[in-house]
Design goal:
The protein is α+β, with helices and mostly antiparallel strands and about 425 residues long. The chain has a domain at about 40-150 and about 210-265. The chain is built from eleven helices and 14 strands. Strands 3, 4, 5, 6, 12, 13 and 14 form a seven-stranded antiparallel sheet that branches. Helix 3 (about 150-165) runs antiparallel to helix 4 and helix 8 (about 305-315) crosses helix 9. The longest helix has 17 residues, at about 5-20.
């Protein structure tokens, strides 16, 4: 297959594994259509965000950020953007630091970190380059993709679920399938194997373009100690001339953003929950295109779609109502309302007061156990968190373990301390 076909395939693989859609072969489905990202993003792999990672440094002084892109080179027609919101309470932020990077045709990068710092140069060496005011460091180049999955096992598991739904398995009023014990056991066991044997990682050795930054915390936490991170890709707006550096070394003004065409933070949300695993392509694509483009004030509208989809995941273990934060006494989709609202606010939450980062969703777990308390873990997402397996478990049995695809990590070792963090391609 050519490079464009490979990129399309890798984009589909991400959706299949993380989202849990009922897909059984690359271009052949049962009960569901092939859910990739939106047509706009698929048409340009350089605009396709694979994952966003955010965590604090081990010395407690910096925020580390990674955005990996499906294409093997960044585009000179796009802007790559991190939003770092900050506040004192989970779900409530009062300030935002905008981090904007763009590239020329030679892949030279130009980045702004709010109004605090700026850099322009070749950031492809693994040591990266520092901003003029030394408030951040940036790397941009090919690295190993830390995402891992057993796609064949996942396809086979959803095949079991799809066959059961085709042959009479019903759903309750909240949309949760009533799988019997044997079917549930088969789904979960099949998920952990590849062709009946040990689980294998389909993405072993896959490389992607990585934009990596390490930023002084006091640049991004003006609103409070809790940080909420999300990434986006925008079209590069037409300008008469690019900003130039001031006469005394002053940094140029941060550029305005062009039309948004892609956004993401937590894995799973858009392609799996918002798009809807059973929705026709036309409906799914419309939802996701809107999701990519809507401003923050409009994010809450997508909680309705997420509620409708959470029931499917809740049923995989044969028990409805034990999903994380679900209301087991609720008879309709309201059962999943609390979790749907949290996921619709799609940001990675980081406790910047902690330099210990071991638990995906640590900030959220603490908030719903002891409202207002500060987690002892930074949360966020490092390249080594088994985030897809944690999500599978939370959406199925309400815990962080027990539902997985048989894999525990990537085939390469990534660092949380040594810049640029991701392993060499």
């Amino acid at each position: 297959m050519n490079r464009f076909q490979q990129r399309r395939t890798i984009s589909w693989v991400r959706v299949l594994v993380v989202a849990g859609t009922l897909i059984f072969s690359e271009f052949q489905t049962v009960l569901a259509s092939d859910h990739l990202d939106t047509p706009t993003v698929i048409a340009d792999p350089a605009a396709d965000i694979g994952d966003i990672f955010a965590w604090t440094s081990s010395d407690g002084k910096r925020l580390n950020l990674v955005m990996d892109i499906v294409a093997h080179q960044f585009s000179d027609r796009l802007q790559y953007v991190f939003h770092v919101d900050s506040g004192e309470r989970f779900g409530k932020t009062t300030a935002t630091t905008l981090i904007v990077c763009r590239f020329d045709a030679a892949n030279t990068v130009e980045c702004w970190v709010g109004n605090a710092d700026y850099v322009h140069g070749d950031a492809s060496n693994t040591v990266g380059i520092e901003g003029k005011n030394r408030r951040f460091r940036v790397f941009a180049g090919l690295r190993d993709d830390p995402f891992f999955n057993n796609v064949k096992g996942t396809r086979a598991a959803y095949n079991v679920a799809g066959a059961a739904l085709q042959h009479g398995t019903t759903t309750d009023a909240a949309g949760c399938p009533q799988f019997d014990e044997a079917t549930s056991r088969s789904i979960l066991d099949t998920w952990r194997h590849t062709d009946g044997g040990l689980a294998t990682n389909l993405l072993a050795g896959w490389k992607s373009s990585a934009l990596v930054l390490s930023i002084d915390l006091d640049v991004v936490n003006s609103g409070g100690k809790l940080l909420a991170v999300w990434g986006a890709v925008h079209k590069l707006p037409r300008v008469k001339a690019w900003p130039k550096e001031g006469t005394k070394g002053r940094i140029p003004a941060i550029p305005r953003l062009g039309e948004p065409i892609e956004r993401t933070a937590r894995p799973l949300i858009k392609n799996g929950l918002v798009g809807g695993p059973l929705a026709p392509d036309a409906i799914s694509n419309q939802r996701k295109e809107s999701y990519n483009r809507v401003g923050r004030t409009g994010w809450a509208q997508f909680s309705t779609y997420i509620e409708q989809t959470l029931g499917l995941y809740d049923g995989f273990d044969g028990k409805c109502g034990n999903q994380w934060l679900s209301d087991p006494n609720a008879k309709g989709p309201v059962r999943y309302q609390t979790l749907a609202k949290i996921l619709a606010d799609d940001r990675l939450w980081v406790n910047s007061k902690s330099s210990v980062c071991t638990q995906f969703l640590a900030v959220e777990f603490t908030e719903f156990k002891t409202p207002g308390a500060l987690s002892g873990d930074c949360g966020g997402r490092t390249p080594n968190y088994p985030a897809p397996n944690i999500f599978r478990s939370l959406l199925t049995n309400g815990t962080t373990t027990g539902v997985d695809d048989g894999l525990r990590g990537d085939d390469k070792v990534h660092s949380t301390t040594d810049f640029p963090f991701l392993a060499a391609p």
